[in-house]
Amino acid sequence: MKCFVIAMQKEADPILEKFETEKDYSAGNKRVMLGKLCGRRTGIVVCGVGKVNAASGTQYAIDCLNATEIINIGVAGGLNKSVCVGNIYSVSAAVQYDFDLVQLNGGKIKMGTLEGFTENYLPLTPTEGFEQRKVGTGDRFNDDYRDFLLLTEELGADIRDMELGAIAQVCILSRVPCRALKIISDVAGSGSTTEQYAKNLDTCFVSLKNNLEKIVGAVKL
Question: I need a labelling partner for 130 at 20 to 30 A (CA). Which of 58, 105, 184, 221 fits?
């Protein structure tokens, strides 16, 4: 069974409109739902915001729900003009931009390279029918220009979020495929991230609803 790992309840709600819930319970302070989406057996874990929540929710889906693939869907911030508000993008790779062992390793590794890994970007399964972009993940929601420079100039990320890098890490270590689709809620250089996010959430959720059948077909539930 494939499982969705989604940070916030409001990001899961557009999917739940088409979801036939058979079981709904809490585990480790996370909402877990089992049922069918477009007639296919599916699990949904609403994990909470941030990398620790995302990692624990993903591990639960793998260990307790026997997930055969993890699918992360959620809103995220754009970092360049290759992405547009309301559009949905498949993620080709993710990096944890707030993980830094560069100094400890004498500058021999790239920023974001996790312990036990040789590359900083973690590969994901591409989703056909959606343009591919790279994601930088960190436990920060801000307009800090230093983060922007790190993400764009050093790491070459197109999108930033707060969960995917951790989800990808758990999946690689557990040998479970992972894919992600990100809906753009704000774009750097277009004003306050917080104001854009609040203004554009409804647009993002309408986009998710309108593309849900396409997504279900593409991820082959």
Answer: 58
Give bridge partners of residue 55 from the DSSP assignment: none
Residue 221 lies in a domain: no
Distance between CA atoms of residues 103 and 201, nearest Å: 39
* 115-126 pLDDT per residue, tens: 999 999 999 999
Structure tokens at 195: 């104001």
Average pLDDT over residues 134-155: 96
Structure tokens at 159: 């999108």
Whether the Cβ atoms of residue 55 and residue 162 lie closer than 8 Å to each other:
no
Predicted confidence at residue 45, as pLDDT, reads 98
Domain contains 220: no
Q: Quote the CA–CA distance of 35 and 17 in Å, as a whole number.
A: 12
Structural domain harbouring 183: 2-214
